[in-house]
Design brief:
The protein is globular, with a radius of gyration of 21 Å. Mean pLDDT is about 85; it is low at about 285-295. By secondary structure, it is mainly α. It has a 4-stranded mixed beta sheet with strand order 1-2-4-3, sandwiched between helices. The protein has helices at about 5-35, 40-65, 75-100, 105-120, 150-155, 160-175, 175-200, 210-250, 250-265, 270-275, 300-305, 310-315, 320-330; strands at about 100-105, 125-130, 135-140, 145-150. The protein contains 13 helices and 4 strands.
């Protein structure tokens, strides 16, 4: 039976998303508020990674050790790994076709310069046809790419473009695409184990209620882990912003982000196109609720930094909100 037609799967998915929205609107902002500014970026990433791996490993172990039923866990793991690996392998080809990516000597010169500053090998530079955005992608077969849209090329000054390219090269430098691919498997694995337990509970007269309780708990925890993975993704964006600031200076990094933000605020229909993209997690700008101004003043940037952001919007996004990214860049000792 296809999962999409399974009422148990549908109910679990809806239930899980309710839990995730509740976390994003209540618990997550309070926790973030208490630890904000108390930990360095590197410490925050390390602790969050330990938390994600620790919770995931513990839950998976408890399910396997105490469920007492055959869940075909190896089959589930193999299936999820195979699907994610397939996406990892074919996504560069899909991106190139979807966006009509073309090599650019002009952009390649910028990429070469920035890569040299960051002490890494230069990825391939391509121009794509899309609203203003940039992203990093690739794998060991296709090689690494940095893509910048033609509209963004026309919108940014030289130092702003270098900052954006530095951000994207930072993702390659930190191996973020592979990192997030592997972490993304964990909440899916816990969810499907819980889903399998619920199905098993229907066939087990002796331990049906126990298995159902464990399965529901696993589903809840899978969405908690998903919120943590999203938080880790946002930290990786800050990490990449550091590379952009190193590449071209803090001011250039802030101006580039502010220009992109003001563009999408002014043209919500174009923003919807980006928000609906299957590749939005790759983009330098992808916050789901947030042509261009030719100039962005320091007053514009300062005004942006003071704007309030929706906790739900922030905690359900792969990217931090622009006001927080601008404030974070200010804090860098560069």
């Amino acid at each position: 039976m296809f999962l999409i037609f399974d009422p148990i799967y549908i109910l679990l998915a809806v239930f899980g998303y309710v839990i995730m929205f509740a976390l994003a609107s209540t618990v997550a902002p309070k926790v973030a508020g208490r630890v904000a500014g108390k930990l360095s970026l590197y410490t925050s990433m390390a602790l969050l990674l330990v938390l994600i791996l620790g919770i995931s490993a513990s839950v998976i172990y408890l399910i396997v050790a105490f469920a007492g039923v055959s869940l075909s866990i190896y089959t589930i793991v193999a299936f999820l790994v195979a699907i994610n690996l397939l996406i990892y392998l074919i996504s560069p080809y899909l991106i190139n076709m979807s966006y009509g990516a073309k090599r650019s000597e002009e952009l390649q010169r910028v990429v070469d310069t920035v890569a040299s500053r960051l002490g890494v090998k230069a990825p391939k530079a391509v121009i794509v046809h899309s609203p203003p955005n940039a992203f990093a992608y690739g794998n060991f077969i296709t090689g690494k790419f940095v893509a910048v849209s033609d509209s963004l090329m026309n919108m940014l000054s030289k130092d702003e473009l270098e900052a954006v390219v530095g951000h994207e090269i930072g993702h390659h430098k930190h191996r973020d695409n592979l990192f997030m691919l592997l972490l993304g498997i964990l909440p899916s694995l816990i969810f499907y184990l819980g889903y399998a337990l619920l199905h098993s509970s229907l066939r087990n007269e002796n331990r049906g209620l126990q298995l159902a309780a464990i399965g529901i708990a696993a589903v809840i925890i899978s969405f908690v882990v998903q919120v943590l993975v999203l938080a880790f993704s946002r930290l990786r964006e800050y990490f990449a912003d550091v590379e952009g600031a190193i590449s071209a200076g803090k001011d250039a990094m802030q101006r580039s982000l502010a220009k992109i933000h003001y563009f999408y605020r002014r043209y919500p229909s174009v923003h919807a196109e980006v928000a609906d993209s299957k590749f939005r997690a790759l983009f330098i700008y992808a916050l789901v609720n947030a042509v261009a101004e030719p100039f962005v003043t320091r007053a514009d940037i300062e005004r942006l930094k003071r704007e309030k952001v929706s906790p739900i919007e922030e905690f359900l996004s792969t990217h931090p909100p622009i006001p927080k990214r601008l404030a974070f860049i200010d804090s860098l000792g560069l």
